[in-house]
Each structure stands twice: as C-alpha cells, then as structure tokens.
Design goal:
Rossmann fold, 468 residues, Prob_Methyltransferase, 18 helices, alpha/beta, 14% strand, coiled coil, 11 strands, transferase
C-alpha cells in the first residue's frame, strides 16, 4: 500500500506547483494589463496615449487634422458670437420700437457701429478661413513633414503659425538665399511659455491688449526678439499732434500722448517732481528740461565730464551718425542734433515712458535690451555713447559680448564714449582691462572718486583701422 501511495503524492505535488506557476503568470499578466490601462488614461488621463489606444489619429501622414478641426471650430465660434450680438441688438431695438421713430443717429455713429460690431468680426473670421490650407490628396500621401519640437511645445496656434517656416510660394530660393523664411523668437521663450501665450492670445485684426509691460518683461527675461502680432496697437484716446521740431527738443510733451495706466505717475509734471514713488532711479531729474539743457555743454568741476564740442573737435566733420546706449529721455541725441549729428537712443520703459518721451521730442528711440545683438550692420556707426546703464553691476562676460558687438558696428576711426561709468574701487582694474582689451586709441581717460568705495571712469576711445 505504501508503494502505491507514493506516485499519487508526487503527482499531487506536481499539480500544486503547476497551479502556483499558472497563478503567478495570471497575476503577472493582470498587472501588465492594469499597467496598460493605467498608461492609456483610465485612471490618470494621458490624452496622447488614449488617442493611440483608441486608434484616433491627429495627423494623417504629416497633415495636422487636429489643427484643422481647431481652426474650423474657432471660425464657427466667432460667427456664432457675432450672430448672438446682432440678435441681441435687434431684440433691444424691438423693446424700444417707439424710441426708434424719434431717435436720430449720425452717419458717423452708424459707421462706427458697423465697423466695430459687424465688419471687424466678419473680417477676423474671414482671415481665419483663408488661413485654412487643405492639402491635395497626393500631397498627403507624399508628405515628409518633420516633427518640430519647438513648434509643438506651444499650444497657442498663433505662435505655432509664426515660428513655422514659411516656404517660397513659387518653389524657388528666396532673395535671402534660403528656401523659406524662418521667423525667430528667443530660445528663452520656452521658459516663459505661459506669458508668451498670453501675449499672443488675441483676435486677428482686432485691438491688441494694453500689454507693453508684458512684452518688455518677456524681452528682459530673454524672450527676445518677440514674435510679430496681427492686432492693432492701442494709442491714447486723446492723442494730440506733437509739437514742431523747433519746439519739441527742449519742451515737455503733451501728457495726453502717453498711456499712463502702467505707471505710478499720470503726467510729466509728476515725473519731473521730487517724488520718491516715481518708479525709476537710473534717470533722476532727466524729465527736468532746464537741468537737461546743461548736460555736455557747461563746464564741470569733475574731470570725468567731457563736453560735446571738445569731443567733436577730435574728429571735425566726421561724426554724422551714432548710437546712445543708456537710460534717458534723449537729451544726448538732442544736443548732437544741434550739431547735425543723428543719434539713435536705446530705451526701455523702466518706470516711466522713456520711448514716448524720446519720440515726442522728435528723436529716434530703439526699444532694445542688453540681451539682443544690435540690429545694425558691421562698421557703420561714427560714434557709440553710453551712460547710466552699464555700471559695476554688469557681469564681466556679458560686458565682453556687448563690447565686441559695439566694436562690430563701430567703423574704423569711430569713437567709443564711455560716460560716467562707475564701479567699486576694487573692481576697477578688471573693468579697465575689459575696455582696453580692444586696443583702441585713448583720446581722453579720466577717473574720479564717487564715494569712499566707488569710482567714476570716463573714456573717449578710437577704433583702429584693422586693415586685412
């Protein structure tokens, strides 16, 4: 009996182990299945995997069907919104039938109503429809469209359209020697995706938001240059004609020509007063025209203050065009204009409307940050002047890039005027090396104490010929 039991026990053990193994495989298979469902978005939504799991295609061999659907939906929404507004206006008229017979509206009011409430929305919807490009069947089959990581980073369609390469319509090389035009935005825009999408959220053909401060924030954080926009820039509702050029150079502009909504001050009188809440510190007193008239033309007790007449006498008749890189209201350009020299002034609206002030004085402002390569060709400027902007706070490597860019646009024999640069005394040698490394000829060089620990440096340097 014992012998006959042994095979049965062995068979029972074998079956038990087989059941354990099969049970383990079932558990593993179940876990894998659950993981697949989890990845597909049954528990945490992952829309891309869900679409793949259910077999929904967003792109048909390179053609973006989702973008087409979104564009059509956008147009339908705009037309529906227009219809609702018009129906609401008609209903309001029905309620006031008696008033309609007695009310007279001018042709100007009727024209304004049609432009704002009917024509603009219809035009916007029309442009959106025109932007839809249905591919030819053979184009779909033969498409070799590449995946563009930078483009697909952004959701706002207007950004995607802007940075998508624009191919030549006739299939030939463009006048720039390329197959298409590649609109650029700074790579740092990816880090400020939310702000950039807010900046590019608008109705095509309608008014832009009053968001210049958002644009400047993006520029200062490296999202520069910004994309172009297809909306209408807002201006002051009470804009007045600028003063004639013979008056505007040394007269405060009309307050009504500035949008003051993003400033602490609401007029130029506030900016020129002794107000600690003005919001800017680098340009103290630069809105006070009587004080501005004294700059660069009157003798100073400090050796670092150079006079314009003395500087121009070094190169008589040779200084015609130049760049003023700093913070101010354009006074340097105004003074140089009196000597028949055209100066472009860089400006940022840091707490005050510097760009508007410069332009209203009849001068040229260039809305530019330190981040950007200067938009000028090589060897064209007769002079570069800088004051109040490049000081001891600046990183030495950044200063190095800036100085070499200045050297690029300055012509041989051109003058670099470093005006009242200040830094800590212990850092003076490092900054002096940065300014002298380009081996410019020194016409003027002056150092003066600013405080116990800081010094001023002014220099007038000439770029060498560097003939090749």
């Amino acid at each position: 009996m014992g012998r006959s039991c042994h095979p049965k026990c062995r068979l029972g053990r074998l079956m038990s182990w087989l059941q354990i193994v099969l049970g383990g495989l079932v558990i593993i298979f179940s876990i894998c299945s659950l993981f697949k469902f989890y990845s597909a978005g049954f528990f945490l939504h992952n829309e891309d995997i869900c679409r793949q799991f259910y077999g929904v295609k967003e792109a048909y061999e390179g053609f973006d069907l989702k973008a087409l659907s979104d564009r059509v939906g956008e147009v339908l929404n705009r037309l529906e919104s227009l219809q609702e507004r018009l129906e609401s206006a008609v209903q309001q008229m029905e309620k006031n039938k008696e008033d309609l017979h007695t009310t007279n509206i001018t042709k100007l009011e009727y024209k304004k109503y049609l432009e704002e409430e009917v024509i603009r929305p219809l035009y916007s919807a029309h442009i959106s429809l025109r932007l839809i490009r249905l591919p030819k069947p053979e184009g779909i089959r033969n498409s070799t469209m590449k995946e563009e990581p930078l483009i697909n980073t952004f959701v706002i369609e207007e950004i995607r359209k802007y940075i998508t390469p624009k191919q030549s319509r006739v299939g030939k090389i463009t006048i720039y020697g390329t197959e298409g035009i590649f609109n650029t935005i700074g790579h740092a825009c990816v880090s400020y995706k939310k702000e950039l999408e807010e900046y590019m959220s608008y109705d095509i053909g309608s008014y832009c938001n009053d968001d210049w401060n958002l644009a400047q924030k993006l520029m200062l954080n490296g999202c520069d240059p910004l994309p172009r926009r297809r909306c209408l820039t807002r201006a002051s509702m009470v804009y007045q004609k600028p003063y004639p050029i013979n008056e505007s150079l040394w007269r405060l502009p009309d307050d009504r020509n500035v949008r003051w909504s993003n400033y602490l001050c609401r007029n130029f009188k506030c900016l020129m007063g002794n107000n600690s809440r003005r919001g800017y510190s680098k340009c103290v007193g630069c809105f006070e025209m009587e004080k501005e008239k004294l700059k660069w033309v009157t003798n100073s007790s400090l050796p670092i203050d150079f006079l314009i007449n003395d500087v121009l006498a070094i190169k008589p008749g040779e200084i015609r065009i130049g760049l003023d890189f700093g913070i101010g209201t354009g006074t340097f350009a105004a003074r140089m204009r009196e000597h028949n020299v055209t100066i472009v002034s860089t400006a940022l609206n840091l707490g005050a409307p510097f760009n508007e002030m410069i332009a209203l004085r009849g001068l040229i402002p260039l809305h530019l940050t330190l981040n950007q390569r200067l938009p000028f060709f090589d060897n064209i400027m007769d002079m570069i002047h800088t004051t109040g902007f490049l000081d001891g706070w600046i990183d030495l490597q950044l200063l190095d890039f800036i100085l070499f860019d200045w050297d690029r646009i300055l012509r041989p024999g051109g003058l670099l005027w470093i005006d009242r640069f200040f830094c800590k005394r212990k850092d003076l040698d490092a900054f002096m090396y940065m300014f002298l490394q380009l081996r410019y000829k020194k016409h003027k060089w002056a150092i003066s104490p600013k405080s116990k620990d800081e010094v001023y440096l002014s220099a007038l340097l000439e770029k060498p010929p560097r003939a090749i």
